């Protein structure tokens, strides 16, 4: 009976002359090294098959330490050199959906096979499989280290494409100038910052892996391929750092503009207040209910008071103008 491990595992075996792709069978495919010039690529979806993992390790005479490493499903990013294998752990961001999720990936790499274990189903490696099937380029003439190079390059390319799609800031400055500091706007800003930092964390993790692979000294493993990957991931991290700096600058500019607008409003209100304070004072005096206020009995007292108020207003405006308050 087919096990869950077999249902979630596929194998591709290829050489310069031909290839074979099918669902994995513990009975027929458990030996990864074929003893010829072919390369075996096994892809497993799921981290919970420890019994089958143990069987794979023992049947292929792999380092027992792999079992301990595979048990740690929250390892993060590591490269560990074993006797004749490399163990690579990568915490990557899945870019298939709008919301960003992370997953743990493990790679067991030898000179003639790669065993890839992914926490969740789905990947972006179909274009690599297509190159193998159609014999495009030189991938079928190279060893497993070249296949690992393609897999890591695909992860970097996916990061770049997704980053440009949902994170990269275009015309942000114009949008900020017309925004109001509402809770919704602040939430969107924090959400964008969180997404950028998520990409930065994942990119730095990949960069650490690539740097360690450049220094790997396993027999039959050529690390020259990974220099190009280091340049690619450095370019991405530089773009992310630049965007973080730009976003912070724009946020500071946004609050500066909002502060300037508030100051203008307060200045206008202050000018009106200063103008009307003496007028209110005069109106308050002549609004008192005392009998002995001589001006109340003047025939032109009302017009004199209005004239005085007008003079006070004009003088106040002239003073404000000279002080360049408006």
Automatic annotation (TrEMBL):
Family: Belongs to the CorA metal ion transporter (MIT) (TC 1.A.35) family.
Name of the featured protein: Magnesium and cobalt transport protein CorA
Catalyzed reactions: Mg(2+)(in) = Mg(2+)(out)
Listed transmembrane segments: 269-288, 300-320
GO CC annotation terms, alphabetical: plasma membrane
Role: Mediates influx of magnesium ions. Alternates between open and closed states. Activated by low cytoplasmic Mg(2+) levels. Inactive when cytoplasmic Mg(2+) levels are high.
Organism from which the protein derives: Flagellimonas hadalis
Membrane topology note: Multi-pass membrane protein
